[in-house]
Amino acid sequence: DAGITQSPRHKVTETGTPVTLRCHQTENHRYMYWYRQDPGHGLRLIHYSYGVKDTDKGEVSDGYSVSRSKTEDFLLTLESATSSQTSVYFCAISGSYGEQFFGPGTRLTVL
Amino acid sequence: GNSVTQMEGPVTLSEEAFLTINCTYTATGYPSLFWYVQYPGEGLQLLLKATKADDKGSNKGFEATYRKETTSFHLEKGSVQVSDSAVYFCALKPQGAQKLVFGQGTRLTINP
Q: Could you report the per-residue pLDDT of A33-52, keeping only the tens digit for each?
């Protein structure tokens, strides 16, 4: 168990509302990641962080922002949710050999 | 660039059959290679890894050998069980990078 939790686990929201997903780790790892998983697209990297206040974009970052004010927490924000952002969102941390350990996921539905 | 190509699924086998899921990669230098498994409704779990050529990763009866000459990392298991039904992802970490490159995943179904 890599000590990663995500909250909420499920969320239904309306188009145009802001949404924040939280990832929390107890492992004190430097690197953290946010992915989305959609049928037919596999896993796609949204943003990642390499330290407190240090973040960078992934391949599908449009419409998303992130923040990391503490080592243990990495927040993903959808400023104005759209139906195309309906997905399952996974957080991950990076281990000693570069392998990643994933959280249980958040299922987000945007109506 | 870096990429991972996995055997297309879905794959359906009978219990106790031999499993192979093919994975080939393109990368410069010496990447690290991984297999992940995802059960329904759960996150990805690291199944096994290999960090240098000729390394064999193994876990829960699954094995994969890092073959640099054929740029492959095929997943094998000698006798599958119904509980092995899941989606399997091959991934690589390029040398010097901190991001993973994932294959598209292979859905495996084992029938009793």
A: 999 999 888 899 999 999 99
Helix (H) or strand (E) holding B48: strand B45-50
CB B90 within 8 A of CB B4: yes
Question: What are the pLDDT digits (tens) for B55-107?
Answer: 999 999 999 999 999 999 999 999 999 999 999 999 999 998 999 999 999 99
Compute φ and ψ for B99, nearest 5 degrees. Answer: -115, 150
In the chain, the amino acid numbered B75 is L
A61 touches chain B (CB under 8 A): no
Cβ–Cβ below 8 Å for A100 and B103: no
Nearest to A42 among B34, B51, B102 (CB): B102
What is the distance in angstroms between the CA of the first residue and the CA of the last residue of chain B? Answer: 41
The minimal CB distance from A99 to the residues B34, B42, B104 is found for B34
- Cβ density class B17-42: b for 16+ within 10 Å, e for less: eebebbbbbebeeebbbbbbbbeeee
Answer for the pair B44, B35: CB distance below 8 angstroms, yes or no.
no
d(CA B31, CA B42): 27
Q: Residue A91 has what pLDDT?
A: 97
